[in-house]
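Protein modeling request. Please complete all fields; requests missing the sequence field cannot be processed.
Requester role: graduate student
Desired output: 3D structure, token encoding
Chains: 1
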Amino acid sequence: MIRKAQSGDAEAFRVLVDKHAPIIWTVINRMVNNTAEAEDLFQETVIRFWRGLPGFKGGSKLTTWLYKIAYRVCLDALSSKERREPHLEIDNDESGTNFEIEDIDHSGVRIVDEIAARDAVERAMNHLPPEWRAMLILFYWRGLSMNEVAEITNRPPNTIKVYMHRARQLLRSVLQEGGYPEGSGHE
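Delivered output (187 residues):
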């Protein structure tokens, strides 16, 4: 399918996009936390995928290469946004989160607690530098290895470990400052 798409077969390209769209969308949407912006960045990612596909040699998995494109598109957009708006603000929209409840058999109280925890983490992620946020998303939400994250971000694995450690510390601090979890004085 990749070879067909590389030779200009639009249908083969559409099949590749359809196959990989959900994981690319999830990464982009979680990085920018804004549906309208995520849609634009998804389109930009698909355009860059199309333009770069003829040069794809298969040195890495196609998904890793697509993550790399999406990561770079988002990082460029977030960096540009931060230059225009120097401070990232927490989105105070209380209408819901981007997470879905996976097990509907939980008690109502537990579901409310899980939603509150996920919402708190999602909001706290907005305080992280975009690159650190992307690394956490790729590692924890997408389940990539440190080496895969290093390949996508063009950083050495040890640098990834240091950045992720700092990101987790900052995330913990932001959560505690925001009063989550209640009565936090512990890790």
